Amino acid sequence: MPLPWSIRMKIALGAAKGLAFLHEEAERPVIYRDFKTSNILLDADYNAKLSDFGLAKDGPEGDKTHVSTRVMGTYGYAAPEYVMTGHLTSKSDVYSFGVVLLEMITGRRSMDKNRPNGEHNLVEWARPHLGERRRFYRLVDPRLEGHFSIKGAQKAAQLAARCLSRDPKARPMMSEVVEALKPLPNLKDMASSSYYFQTMQADRVGSSPSTKNGVRTQGSFSRNGQQHPRSLSIPNGSHASPYHHQFPQNSPKPNGKT
Ligand SMILES: Nc1ncnc2c1ncn2[C@@H]1O[C@H](COP(=O)(O)OP(=O)(O)OP(=O)(O)O)[C@@H](O)[C@H]1O
Ligand SMILES: [Mg+2]
Questions:
Q1: Ion ligand 2, residues whose Cβ is below 5 A away
Q2: What share of the chain in percent tops pLDDT 70?
Q3: Could you tell me the pTM of the whole model?
């Protein structure tokens, strides 16, 4: 059973609050640097806690705009400008948040080599749909079978698009993200009760090669019984994260492409 839409939005909101605190409320601003699903721990009520501060960095001080670091982080989540230049700002975390939000919307992992070519990297796959306001529904996890708020999914997709802006300055502050997410867990305009939406959905399932078999290979966001505390990570049999790299600085390669 897929994790319900409203719970996904609750988790996104909780995690966003965590980042907003680190960036904007902590006595000394902190850049988290390794924001990803497996570092969001959940309690029984799906309250999110950020874990693993091993890579966290003090934010820039005084009038500096960034800190320069060796590029560390996780493939598929790190902001492109950070990977390319090593310049770390809080907007790098905002990008990673955008990736996680996209994972929540789509039910896809940020990197999934089991998908068809062109779909390995979630952000690359999603970008064309993110730009098209009227096509956001193509992004939404088909396993939800319409049990999601239309307005909420649209808002979430727009927000993800802003977080994933190539220009870091165009990305919102985390406090803005929190404000945008606040109403989303409570929206009730379910797509499943919209005739118009059902028609589009049927159309999509018929035409998308990756949904043809009905069964999807990824197992993300399944509720895994009563194990507490949980995390949002995908139980795939191994705890080793295959995309966890230390990027060599100025490497031209890991720019999100696979
Ligand atoms: N306190 C905890 N309670 C329950 N599960 C946890 C806890 N800490 C970590 N985990 C889970 O254990 C797994 C391994 O975590 P670990 O932090 O070692 O690796 P990771 O999150 O994939 O990568 P990173 O080293 O970048 O954090 C993840 O699925 C994570 O969600
Ligand atoms: Mg971790």
A1: 38-39, 52
A2: 77
A3: 0.80
